[in-house]
Amino acid sequence: MLSQSAQLGRQKAVRPPTYRLENEYNPEAMPQYFQISVSIIEGRKFAWTNPHSSNSYVILIFGKKKHRTSIRRHMIEPYYNESFILDMYSTIQVLQRTNLWLAVMELRCCAAPRILGETTIDLGLIWSQPNHQVIHKWAQLYLPRDPSLGPVGFLKLNISIAFRGEIQVMSTVMKNEKLEENLLLPSGLEQQCANYQITIYEAFGLPCGTQSQGERRFGKPPSTFVKVTFCGLVAKTAIQHKTCNPVYSEHLSIVEMFPNMNRLIRIEVCSADGCFNKILASTHLKLENISHDGENGFLPTFGPSLLHMYGSSNSGIIGPAGEEGPYHRGCLLVALNTVVPYYQQIIRSVNVEPANPIQHENLWQIHEFCLFCPILEVSMLDRRVTGKYCGVAVTLGEIPASSSGDEEFLTMLKETRIRKLHYTGCLNVNKTPPYGYLDFCNSFPVLQLATRLPDFRFRIYKNNMLLAIVQDLDVAVKNIERKLQSYNYESPNELSDELNTARNEAACNILNFLNSTQNSRSSESLLQQCNTKLDQKQLALQIEEVVSNLQLNSSVSMQCVTSRCSKINKDSPSVTRKSVKFVLLETRLITESLCKLICDVQLHGWPDIVVWFLNEGSRVAYAKLSVENVIYSVIPEQRGKYCGRIQTLQMKPLKCPSHVNSTHCSCIAGKVEVIMWLGSYRQRPVFDTYIPAGYKVKIKDYDMCLKSSAMMVECRAFVYKAKLLSSALGANPANTFLRVNILTAAKETRTKKNTLTPMWNQVLKVHKMIFMSPERLTSCPPTATIEVNNVDPAGKVEVVGRFDIQCIVDDRQDYEFAPRLQWCGLHKGIEYVGQVFMSVQLVQIPERLMKTTAYSSIDESITTGVKDLDLTDKIESIPLNLIPVSTSYKVDVYWWGLRDVNITRKPCVILEIDDMTLKSDVIVDKRANCNFPNGRVSQTFEAPMHEAYSPLLKIRLYDSSTFGRTLYLGTNVVKNLNKYIVDWLPKNERDASLHRASIMSSDFVQVNQSLVLKRISQLRNDSCQNDNKLLSSVDCISDWQTRHSAWNCTCCRGEPDEEEYTLLPLMSSNNKTYLTKSSSSEQKDWWTRYLYSQELQIYDSELELQPQFSKFRDWCTTLKLYNGKKSGIREKDEQMYCGLLKAGLAIYRWPPPDNTDAVSLSGVDLKKGYFDDHPNNDPAKFLVRIYIVRAMNLKTKELTGKSDPYTVVSCGKKHFGDRSNYIPNTLNPVFGKMYELRCNLPEDYLVTVSLYDYEAIPPDELIGFTTIDLEDRIYSRHRARVGLASKFRLSEPFKWRDSVKPSKILEELCVKNHIPPPVFPDASTVLVNGVKYVDNSQQDRSYVSSIEQRENLCLSILHQWHTIPICGYHLVPDHVETRVLYKEDKPGVCQGTLHMWVDIFPLDCETSIPPAVDITPRSVEEFELRLTILTLRDVDVCNCPDNLELYSKVS
Q1: Is 305 within 8 Å of 264 (Cβ atoms)?
Q2: Which of 553-562, 643-652, 666-675 comes out lowest in average pLDDT?
Q3: Which of 39, 540, 642, 1325 would give a disulfide with 83, using CB separation of 3.0 to 4.6 Å?
Q4: CB-CB contact of 379 with 741 (8 Å)
Q5: Percent of the chain scored above 70 by pLDDT?
Q6: What pLDDT, on a 0 to 100 scale, did the predictor assign at position 212?
């Protein structure tokens, strides 16, 4: 190891590169150049000594460098907004151990500056965050000299770490700026001083030799000490000399804050031999894995238990982000205890004290275990790694134990070590270009391993039961999601039944877990085994959380749990895709809550199983497996998911020959198909039951192997096409081909050049004679590994990505039974790089077909393949029945604008459908106008529109910069394009269909095709229509009867509701029938119309939710943009939300046949585009009137059960409230208020109506709010600006309140739908679309003038506009809508309802705006009731005494 001066000298001599320096063999040991960006934005809640001056600045110390901000004077909450760039040249491991120290300094008069507060930020925490950065996070400040004060302030920071020269990816800034919810601390709690007591007892099995080559039998035992690092503080034990099993027994105390931003406690065993303290082994403890911050949580605690140490190389250093290598470096017996609060020592102090030794017998019992591992296939060998001779070995970390025990086990242990039964030995690697494979010649070796380990199975069993529940639910959810996406189901009821079954099985397994932990016998033995505090806390937490999350307890029955887990009703006939998706989301939430209860595999105390490739005895590749996946138990729920099952392992090379200087290598050295079984030595006979059917076990001495019969199979890979991301290829041109690896053979497609969507359209066939039983082929078919490769100009082949696909086994030979093609995700490591459209079929060739084919010998066929009669390698296309039919389409896009996008300056949007790309213009000044200029664009493409094969529509938001640079910000993915497909008609057919098409309504009588007469208007005293019932006529009732019935309805039903005091209609509470007689004269106020629903439509929900209005999305659609993949979970999606996109999308078949003019249903010539006649998105001004009638069923937290509500209306930066005129003590307030405001679109597109509960001492509590999109109502074809009244009147009180008359509206509709404009021969006649409409009501003198008669005739046509064929649609009538109130902290929970409506008038036109409607509530009037009783009749006084005194009581 070089000294620090030598490193500095080398750094000066070499020119600093601007690219990432990487080393595949040991990337953490390679120094690299980093840039750390720290932005100090603002401070809040400082504990000032002198708040009147409030002068401050911030100090930043990084290593030996000190930085400071400028002084902020007279700012109680200072705004700094300064950035610092810190350069660092070190390894990733050193970077993760480095800290930043920040302090806020307060200037004082005639005195030195005082520290207001300080904090330490661990760069390891920043490195573990997405994109190695945190944005707009609050760091909590504290005072080390007095930690009992708690937090003394907060600093808002941006911190990012990047390799020098790399472009930083911008993260989304959350809109929620609540300080407490956006802390940099992991748990968001207040910090307290804590003592982290780490006890190091002893170590086992440390490597010998000063060079630590990993061979324990060579070299001398080392002299070692243990170093613990936490928050930049280091504590060391004493040195133990010349032993591989040193006993330390020391307490290392570190006093720091809790909770802490540093989440990792690093423990290293260092050698004291020589001049340098070389690291022999290392491990770590993650605080989030040994603590819980919930209501039933606990402080960080651990052990005493074992921590096994691994290294990615012989140095024993852990890998990036805590990832460990394959080399086992021994284990440590460690304990951790956290004391909070702790004030005995000053903060950031370290103390080392001796500890009492511990007896192993009190912690665990040594048990005898054996491992069996049959090797069924070794293929895809990279001969550059494995060489000409390769072998497979399996290892398991050892712990020194006494040699006493069962004699049979000791004999097996001795034989396995002497005979090396854990190793196949070096075998010849057969060539099948480009890979190799091992030929076992129908003798599949069974590797064996015997070892003695502490019996920690109880931890693994407990974890496996929860893990099985989570995995079963996860598999069921993914299977149903796949069926939903591909429409591979007959009806939604099928999916609901499948989901119900999965949830019921999960409920049964949860009950089994509770029974096994809460049963008296099991609980007693389990508590004896849970001998550490962490085990006991985790067990109690798991039980409590399972019961609370699923609402279970020890006394509930199985049926109760099942009913709670089953949310879908099987017998319900209204099961839809949407309901299935809703329950899928609930199931996913249950799965995530259970997944949090699974303990970290590092904490169970057992080493990992490692499968090795050995090249002539040297380890060259590996694959690690956790023992919990292959452990055996007599209880099925406690077994590992791969115990005794066939699994495929991809071997990772220790040193990749193709990527020597890359840490992101995803190459594999080979593929191994194994069966693993780990269990107690006494249970070893059970392994025979896990051997696949059709295989036989051959045992000679201790050597074991499996044998099977031979069969001929044909593998068919139907490869159609792929979609690759441009980032996956980098700067190389796209020259790609696909390779199928299966059954030790490989087949490749043709190379497609210069395209990111290669279409191969090939059937790749592999004929192979294999040793495999038919039972195993059917139950567990082989897995095919698919690779997509790219060829660079130099001819070098680079892997773009790979994935595994399960073969579909079918005995039918015809292509019509081939599996349907499906999209498979392509990954390079963990990075998604594209998808491939293909399927794989495996067919067993029967003997009758084999007789017609000439084959070589079995040995030769394995090497060279089968010799068919036709040896030509022809390119075979995929059968037509498998290929989805593609059709040519045209997509028209009207880029309207962006809303709520605050993280970009010059945004642009790109739409992608396969290869087709449409880009919007850049919004140059988003603050002035957030709408796109020149928004109409069109382009054609070809794609299948079947639900199973429909391409994805991706919309990406970018921030444009100079020189063509762009920065990705957000996306929205539409999985089903059919929602945007529209129909068109030939122009001549549309004209013929609309020729003389008349309005169909009960208000008109059609005399002939070209003449329609309006019926004589009904009398004004006809019965009124209620919200839900038609009121019976009361004309025949006399005045006395009317008063008598009104009296009965009012006095006999009890006290009226509170709102009826104000509204004053007389009605029955039973049937809600209004008994006031309708007068022949006009009603005098708006409330009468509202109460009786006369000439007024009252909707029971939001106006946009009415089905006839299509959510007002006919003119454009609103898409939410997310900075990442949408999860469906509201909390996570809100964090990724970055804005809205408003755009019109229309997809239709194109081109039309020759000599055909294609037009839309509204008559637009599609050659000009579907949105040619849509309004322009230029800024516009409108007058908005919000009428708030009343609220109902409000929710309140007041103890009295009442609230004092008042209304607040917000639009952009305008806020209108009426706090002083609150309505006291009511949950059903009647407001009767109108708010008038001016709005400028597009910035003021959203109106928010909020209800607050008045408090004498502010702040007032929000009851709920509702939002209305004004743009949707203004530009919708349903004309939702002002509702159409039932009649046109020129006089008060119900004067026509729209700025446009019905005749003008009718003319606009005709022009918009390409119909000839209306013609008015006289006041009672109008000619529309060649049909004459005549008002045949000359005898009705209700019209004041001929204008009223003409306008009412036009209004009658408008009300029935939806009856016109092809281009008809509903227009919004005069209405009152019911809007639901919500709160942000309770999404989806109704907080009450609101009766209201909105009128919108343009200010840019010359039309006059009529006066507003007066909806002031009626004033309360007092009445005196006088009752005279004249006589009593039919009173039975027979049984009463003679001196009876009667009286009457009225109540």
Answers
A1: no
A2: 553-562
A3: 39
A4: yes
A5: 82
A6: 41
**Residue 1444: pLDDT above 80?**
no
Residue 1196, both tokens: 């309140």
Contact 595, 623 (CB under 8 A): no
781, 772 Cβ separation under 8 angstroms:
no
704, two tokens: 């074991």
Q: Select from 1141, 1142, 1145, 1151 the least CA-distant residue to 1170.
A: 1145
The Cα 192–Cα 185 span in angstroms is 12
Contacts of 589 (CB under 8 A, 6+ apart): 1129
Dist CA 1159 CA 1245 (whole Å): 31
**H helices present in 99-214, as ranges:** 123-128
DSSP annotation of 169 reads P
Decide if 138 contacts 191 (C-beta within 8 A).
Answer: no
Nearest to 1360 by CA among 1348, 1347, 1370, 1373: 1370
- Long-range contacts formed by 572-576: CB under 8 A, 24+ apart: 575/491, 575/492, 575/493, 575/496, 576/492
User: Model confidence at 30, in pLDDT bands (50, 70, 90)?
Assistant: low
Nearest to 285 by CA among 262, 254, 311: 262
From residue 864, give the alpha-carbon distance in Å to each of 384, 538, 741, 1211.
22, 57, 15, 76
C-beta atoms surrounding 588 within 10 Å: 18
List Cα–Cα distances, 1416 to 127, 1063, 1215, 1235, 1412, in angstroms. 62, 11, 21, 12, 11
- C-alpha distances in Å from residue 389, one per residue of 424, 442, 445, 495, 1058: 11, 19, 16, 51, 92
| Under 8 Å between Cβ of 749 and 766 | no
Instruction: Determine the Cα–Cα distance for residues 471 and 343; give it in Å rounded to an integer.
Output: 45
Residue 552 has pLDDT above 50, yes or no: no
Distances (CA, A) of 1196 to 1031, 1193, 1201, 1233: 36, 9, 7, 22
d(CA 1231, CA 1234): 9
CA–CA separation, 435 and 377 (whole Å): 14
Q: Please give the residue that has the higher pLDDT: either 1412 or 567.
A: 1412
Rg (CA), the chain: 40
- Residue 322: CB partners within 8 Å, gap ≥ 6? 264, 284, 286
The CA distance from 1027 to 1010, in Å, is 36
Q: Give CA–CA dist 329/281, Å, rounded.
A: 6
Residue 895, strand partner residues: 1143
Residue 561, pLDDT > 80, answer no
Average pLDDT over residues 1291-1316: 90
